[in-house]
Specification:
Number of strands of chain A: 15
Number of domains of chain A: 4
Strand order of the largest sheet of chain A: 1-2-5-4-3
Helix content of chain A: 40-55%
Distance between the termini of chain A: 19 Å
Radius of gyration of chain A: 27 Å
Oligomer: homodimer
Order of helices and strands of chain A: HHEHEHEEEHHHHEHEEHEHEEEHEEHHEH
């Protein structure tokens, strides 16, 4: 078996091929001069409008451009402008939030942008001007180490990266971000649990290039630790962040792991994609094919859907945190009952979330082997007494090794019926904000007809990706 | 839930009830005076005939009565006479065997007994005189510790037990043996892997009574060690016999575990039965009910039979050793393939053995989740390459946690077809003496029709017991 190729078609090996792929990738990642100019114009316009809106406001210190637009590290077709309004530490948090919402939205209206409120650690205003996304965020003007809110670090991040950038590295960062996006690991939000833009920038700076990052990354194992501050050994970092597959200290705050959001799965996907790209470079890592394997028939009888409706408006990470907690709890409960859960996934769509569980069989076998206690435990007699003349007992109890066993007829066998009962009885985790949606959830087997309905309800891409099963870089 | 009662019907609690049960049990266990007299008559007749047959034979030292007939510890309706022919150590093994076979059989013919050859460690002659079984066994007249064959210890065993017996203990031993037999753990042969007569005698001597043995036994845990020689601590014995659930040193050979044949299952059955008997005495522990639950329908689709025919004439333990090795190997292979083997059993019938496997489903699900290597292992790329565009791949490969997974269509799904292939390819253990029978074995699902056929072929009691599942003392 030769090296694996993601993507079909003839690909020639060697340095020329790699350079060709990178050249094409740069066209995907690096904005044109026209796009650069347009973003700069928008950024300056927003900055001026926000400055204007906050002029003379007590406690307002300054207004700055931050993030990828300030650093020139944004990737093509994803233009985004972050404007930060800095307040002096004496201003109360509530007041700060109120001002940002009121005056930030007014500033956006003044330049003709539509806007909506969004929530991270605290509320901010998200606006849209043409194809550019604009964020107006409030922060405190603090010294490092005296952070009052998580975003207070951002201006220092911008300064740190800018002080180390040159044009070559700017392009390398853009390649890296486009790669992360292409393979599906880009984004620190809980729904993705991948690599943030800032993390990607630090990694490229650390290894001094995109390919250099991939070369190192292709050899990473979970618990990989990179100190950007010259303070810790790898062992110390692993002890400090024992559950992180990837640890990258923040140059502006040595006690923080910039990669804390990265899940083991996203970490592993990055490692595998790095290896595959290096052994077989292809543009498909930057520009993945859509899901391919469209035949759902082999999976019929295996797919259970849970449709949560009327979810509350909450910060995305809060909502996803609860949804994922529910999913994991359902997975564990199904496994404990004897179901083989092969995989699951969740997708949001407006105020809905659709959960899919791929289960070896949606019906448990009619009989269940119950494993009892060792005969020398006190409750061995109880086990015998409970099952010996029970109506549902089919064979036994018997002794094998040191334990008791009994074969019982199952009262309830369908994953759907069991899940509904568990929700009702609180035998799965039902987090509070999503509880009403879970209690009224529609739980059903995905038949061909149901599949058609779901496709028509906006879940088509999600269903295709789930049925295909492959991450983007293996399509 | 009250204490468990094995057996139905009203049972009064208290000492009077226990005494009543023991009284009835004694009638089962202790021979009548008439039976005692008759056995003594038979024993003397056989002894004289054998003595006569070996008179003047060079190297012949003496002929003695051994075993339960000599000790008066045989249980009612199981009369058995063991006559030992002692040779001086200078006699070659082959000559000894030849003499025992030739002259032993002649002696039995002389008194009108039918006979056949049997094999344990070496051949002996088994005869039948009325309802009494007679064994003529050759041994060496050696000093303890200078054993030349395993049966050389037997005369010392007889002497040891006789020197410690009185009439009360004789009855207690008979009760204990009848209990062991009733609960299905009596017999050291591999097919049973239970308690030998000698072991039972030692245990009753040690605890000075039947109930006292049960009281102690009901608290045993695997690794229980009893030193009959005042030499070792429990810890030392466990270190000497690390895999034995029960260790009882031999008073005539301190380095030997008299309980080495006892399997963990038989050990545990004895512990459980002791507890249940003490909390709820019943005659059914001595005189078990036949299997009861006769309805096979819930098990249809779960039972696979393997019928081994034309098995060679071999010592029972040799044959069973190979058959059980094959069974365990099949169980492990089935489990590795994804089958849930709930239990299995084997029964012999003439030169045949029938194996039954109770499997959650005789067909594996159409799809199989294959677990691949962690992404950081060298062979991760091979796994991707092998499955990415394979015809049988239904979904994936994908990454979850640090590993790769893929969902495949199964080529072969039936337990029967797979087992036949494994036998053909040597993927299960095929011990040499039984190999021809395994290679030509009939493997089939037990349908109602097949069940009828098997019942008519002499497996009725075995099938009933298997379908019921309970050990005798829980029926």
């Amino acid at each position: 078996m030769g090296p694996v190729r993601a993507g079909d078609g003839p690909v020639k090996s060697g340095a020329g091929e790699l350079e060709g792929v990178l050249e094409a990738a740069r066209r995907i990642a690096v904005p044109t001069e026209y796009e650069e100019r347009r973003l700069r114009t928008v950024a300056e316009r927003v900055l001026r409008a926000v400055e204007e809106a906050f002029r003379g406001v007590e406690g307002h210190v300054r207004t700055t451009l931050e993030g990828s637009a300030a650093k020139g590290t944004w990737i093509r077709s994803r233009p985004e402008v972050d404007v930060f309004v800095h307040f002096s530490p004496g201003v109360g948090r509530e007041l700060l939030e109120k001002m940002v919402v009121e005056r930030g939205s007014r500033a956006l209206e003044d330049i003709g942008a539509s806007w909506r409120l969004r929530y991270a650690d605290h509320p901010y205003v998200e606006g849209f001007l043409g194809d550019v996304t604009v964020n107006v965020v409030g922060c405190y003007a603090t010294e490092p180490g005296k952070w009052l809110s998580p975003v207070d670090r951002t201006p220092y991040h911008t300064r740190y990266v800018l002080s180390r950038l040159d044009d070559r590295l700017r392009t390398e960062i853009r390649l890296a971000k486009a790669f992360m996006r292409g393979i599906g690991v880009y984004g620190a939000e809980l729904r993705i649990s991948g690599f943030s833009g800032y993390l990607t920038e630090l990694l490229v700076l650390r290894f001094n290039g995109f390919l250099e990052l991939l070369r190192d990354g292709s050899g990473w194992r979970p618990g990989k630790a990179i100190d950007m501050t010259g303070t810790f050994t790898e062992e110390e970092l692993r002890a400090l962040f024992p559950n992180s597959p990837l640890i990258v200290t923040d140059p502006v705050d040595r006690n923080r792991n910039v990669a804390s959001a990265v899940s083991l799965t996203r970490f592993s996907e990055f490692v595998l994609a790095s290896r595959l790209f290096l052994s077989s470079p292809s543009l498909s890592f930057f520009d993945p094919r859509p899901p391919f394997r469209g035949d759902v028939r082999p999976l019929l009888g295996c797919l259970m859907a849970v449709r949560l409706r009327d979810l509350p408006s909450l910060p995305a990470d809060t909502l996803w945190g609860e949804v994922l907690k529910f999913c994991r709890s359902v997975e564990r409960r199904l496994q404990r009952e004897g179901f083989v859960v092969r995989r699951w996934a969740a997708e949001s769509n407006g105020d809905e979330v659709l959960l899919l569980f791929d289960i070896e069989s949606l019906e448990l076998p009619p009989l269940e082997l119950r494993v009892g206690p060792p005969v020398w435990l006190r409750n061995a007699e109880d086990f015998v007494g409970e099952h010996l003349r029970d109506q549902l007992t089919v064979a036994g109890p018997w002794v094998s090794g040191e334990r008791l066993y009994v074969l019982k007829r199952r009262a309830l066998r369908s994953a759907r019926d069991l899940l509904l009962r568990w929700i009702e009885r609180g035998e799965v985790s039902v987090p509070k904000d999503v509880a009403p949606s879970i209690r009224s959830a529609e739980v059903f087997e995905v038949t061909e007809e149901r599949l058609r309905e779901l496709r028509e309800s906006g879940y088509s891409a999600f269903l295709d990706a789930f049925i295909d099963g492959r991450p983007p870089f293996l399509r």
